[in-house]
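In this section we turn from sequence analysis to structure. A common task in structural bioinformatics is to predict how a protein folds when a small molecule is present, because the ligand can shape the pocket around it. The inputs are simple: the amino acid sequence and a SMILES string for the ligand, here NAP. Study the lines below before reading on.
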Amino acid sequence: MRYRRLGRTGYEVSEIGFGAWGIGKQMWVGAEDKESLRALHLAVDRGLNFIDTALAYGDGYSEKLVGRFVKERKERIFVATKVPPKNRIWPARGALSEVFPPEYIIQCAETSLRNLGVDAIDLLQLHVWDAGWIKGESWYDALRKLQDERKVSFFGISINDHDPGSALELVQSGKVDSVQVIYNIFDQSPEDQLFPLCQQKDVGVIARVPFDEGGLTGHITPETKFPKKDWRNYYFKGDRKQQVFERVEKLKGLLDGEAGTLPELALKFCLSHPAVSSVIPGMRTAAHVESNVAVSDAPALSKGMIAKLREHRWERNFYS
Ligand SMILES: NC(=O)c1ccc[n+]([C@@H]2O[C@H](COP(=O)([O-])OP(=O)(O)OC[C@H]3O[C@@H](n4cnc5c(N)ncnc54)[C@H](OP(=O)(O)O)[C@@H]3O)[C@@H](O)[C@H]2O)c1
């Protein structure tokens, strides 16, 4: 496993981090705690030291499982979590005072501290961000207070789906230590402006949804059925599975000695950009951990392959 600096936090985080949404069990149907823990243990055995969770994942379930796991290990594991919007609306909607009132941010952080069973949260992220909130200071004061009390070490935001431009002013302001953003073979838009700015301001970048919620693994076909109540029935509704399938079939033509499988190609693409500190695939099984962590040790993609992947950029929003 290779490590990269998470911007000015100075944390040396593993290139492959653990996306812990699925193990929260609520919106993703099918995780089993025993297997989730097996996956986490294997990941750390292989050198992974960065986990991304959120208070909203299973209403604290993911945080509690991660907290339980971290206690069982002696390694230094960096855990990032998130404050959900008070109105529970994703992407961000409403006035800052309604979505992130300062006392609410502090209350959520206290709950996350208890769930994780730690004295300090390594990285606390606001789970949504609206560009218009830049003028407000109350969220920042609340996070600074938590930092002064040593309950939070660093803070950042998780950027709204497919909207990296909404964070530019905030990154420019120097107020955040990290951003989390959708970045994958389809959505390459963070490269346009966000990544260069993060590099300039020394802001850590956490690349999320590297597999486009599964589409880029090549396992989704027009016939794929998700379990009842699994949120991906919505994400891949209508003819979207067919659309994804057609795109992915074209990508398969690129598989060769540089990347033998689509998950490998997808993760290598994310790691090809130097602004990225860690890419966090969602993992619920040891088998997926095994193949994903191995990508960090494999040779990087060539410039030629990256140039070919540019042609597969596909901008659309399946979350809406
Ligand atoms: N707003 C936000 O802040 C936000 C939003 C979304 C995600 N996130 C973070 O980003 C993380 C990653 O995103 P995500 O989990 O939504 O989507 P993702 O990483 O793009 O895709 C997850 C899917 O990929 C599958 N998978 C993983 N490794 C695989 C492999 N080697 N081979 C085949 N399939 C594989 C998983 O399989 P299984 O179904 O078998 O588990 C799951 O279905 C989340 O866990 C969370 O930490 C944050």
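The domain at 3-310 is CATH 3.20.20.100 (TIM Barrel). As an exercise, try to locate the residues that line the NAP site and compare them with your own expectations.
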